[in-house]
Amino acid sequence: AMEKSYVSMFLLLVAISCALAKDVGKKETKETTAKPKLPQTLSRGWGDQLIWTQTYEEALFRAKHSQKPLMIIHHLDDCPHSQALKKVFAEHKDIQKLAEKFVLLNLVYETTDKNLSPDGQYVPRILFIDPSLTVRADITGRYSNRLYAYEPSDISLLYSNMQKALKLLKTEL
After folding, report:
1. Residue 79 burial (CB count, 10 A)
2. Half-sphere exposure (CA, 13 Å, Cβ side) for 132?
3. Long-range pairs for 49-58 at CB < 8 Å and ≥24 separation?
4. What is the pTM of this model?
5. Tens digits of per-residue pLDDT, 73-101?
6. Where would you tag: which of 18, 72, 99, 169 has the fewest CB atoms within 10 A of its CB?
């Protein structure tokens, strides 16, 4: 009898928490329901309101067909440098706004495509690829030994490199 009452109590708690969770969900504003919300898993915290592609192949396809540049962010969840850059990137309003003009992909694993690690497999690294599917070797960070690395203090350089990627797009296509 004791076990039965524990089970009923547990089921009652589950039912209550489900009902409460539903009420929380209903309070969404028009703003959040207007745009389709993607699960946060694809953004991995780099910008939850941005639309992220799931795979490198999908990202290349979208870049080519939308004629938008692709921005690939290589990072690792347990890397303090990646975490620090992610925080600054996600909180930077201008970068988040500008990022909407890109096809976006963030990867926590290495791809077999050697073009994505032109000077090594370090993290974090950010590469820009134009719609002709060319890695932009001319858009780099400030470190000669890790061309595509950015530190949190380089956020304004990253912002201007994003602008550069968009500008080059208009002049070259």
Report:
1. 16
2. 9
3. 49/96, 50/96, 50/99, 50/100, 50/104, 51/104, 52/104, 52/105, 52/106, 53/103, 53/104, 53/105, 55/105, 56/105, 56/107, 56/111, 56/113, 56/116, 58/105
4. 0.75
5. 999 999 999 999 999 999 999 999 999 99
6. 18
